[in-house]
Structures are given as structure tokens and as C-alpha cells.
Please model this.
Amino acid sequence: MMRAVLSLVSGALFGAGLHVSGMTDTSRVRGFLDIAGHWDPTLAFVMGGAILPMLLAWRMTRGRVPLAGGAFPSPPANTLNRPLVFGSILFGIGWGLVGLCPGPAIASISYGGWPGAVFLVAMLAGMWAVPPLRRMLDRQASHA
Amino acid sequence: MEMAWLYGLLGGLMIGTGGAVLLLGTGRIMGASGIVGGLVDGTGSDRGPTLAFLIGLIGAPALFTFGGWAVNTQATSQLWLLISAGLCVGIGTRFANGCTSGHGVCGLSRFSLRGLVATLFYIGAGVVTVSVMRIGFGI
Model:
């Protein structure tokens, strides 16, 4: 129960933050990526603002356990591989095309109208397709 | 909007605080693609708290709208753009194991090399995409 309440509070802060910061506005997000045109730096402030509490939070995990039990994530792996690079490039292309990334895409259910819904359904379908896609690529790699 | 950067900073602090609550409270990383992706492909655990998180994420902007502060959104209504972009974001973030919130906010704040590399590549690809669309196609 406590896990659910804390998760609800976290999601609500995320959603409220997206709203307040203006990151629900796809033209603002695309404006950040448009460095050769009318560059909109807002997203950099959002990123910076979000990283500050997280710096503190990661520091506070040392020597502790989560409030609702369990364990903290293990230290980050430093392995750079092709899925990370190609996946991020593919993500960046989709992000640039419309200006939605997964957080705002989910939040947009309540305000995005049908364009947001179409994007969300396509995104979820893509996510759903990844485990079979991975298996297919692994099989091809092992045959090669 | 006047002083967009200040709203950006304030909203960013709220997003980061949300990430801190999830991490310190439940031990999970607040990555939108990981949280919803695990639910979609069945690899995720913690189904109840995941649904609670999503209710908060969807509900908070709805409350703002209900309270009279409407969301300003200007997503394209080109169907092919929406579908291809959604597929790219869905497939890309799952292969990369993270998106703006997971690799960006949560990864950079713990000095993760993977988070940094992912962030450089998705911002780079986004910049190229937007520039090509505007300069080449006028979209």
C-alpha cells in the first residue's frame, strides 16, 4: 500500500512538473531541438531543475534502504553497446518528428486529444514489439 | 509565455522531486519508458504501484486543466508523422533501455556513462531531425 501511495505521489509530481514547465507543449520541445532556428532553451532549465533533487536523492541512497522496503538499484553499468546507441538515435528521431517523449506522451491522455492518443498507441505498440524484435535480431546474429 | 525559463526550472524541480520520491520511497528509477514498457511487454513487476504512478502522471495535468490552467499543446495532426514518430520512440527507448526521464534525469544525476551517451545521441538525433524537417521540408 505504501509503495502504491508513494508511486502515486511521484507520478503526480512528474505530471504536474511537465505541466508547469511547459513540456506538455510539443512546439516548445521541438523549439529546444531547433538550434539552427528560433532556439528555445526552456528544456535545458527543466532538465537542470530535475537533476538537482535527483543528485541529492542518489546521495541519500548511500547506506540506506528504500522507505517502503526492497533495495536500491545497483550502480550503473558502464557498458556501451549498439542497442544503447541505435535505440537512442531512433528515439531522438521520433522525439524530433513530433516533440513527444514517453512521459509527456502518457500524460497527454488527459489533454492531447486524438493526436496524442495516436502517438501513444503507436509508441506502446513499438514497445510491445521490442522483445520479439530482440529475439529475432539475436537469432540472426547467432546464425551469422 | 513570459519567463518560460522560470516555469521550466520550477517544473523541472517538481519532476526531479517526483523522481526522488520514487527512488527513496520504493527503490525504483523514474523512467517513463521503463515503467510503461514493462507493463506493456509483461517484463515489469510491481504492477499495482506502476498503475498508481501512471494515474498520478495522467491525473495531475488533468487537475490543472480542470482548475482552469489549460495545457498548451500543439502536436501535429499528420497521421503518418504521429504513427512513425510513436513507433520510433517506443522501439528506440526500449532498445536503449531509457528515455528523457530515465537516461536523462535519473542517469545524468548519478553520473551514468550510459545515461550520458544515450542523452547525447537522442538530443543529437532530435536536433538533426528538426533541422532537416524545417530546412528541407518546411514542417
Q: What stands out?
A: Chain A is about 70% helix and 0% strand.
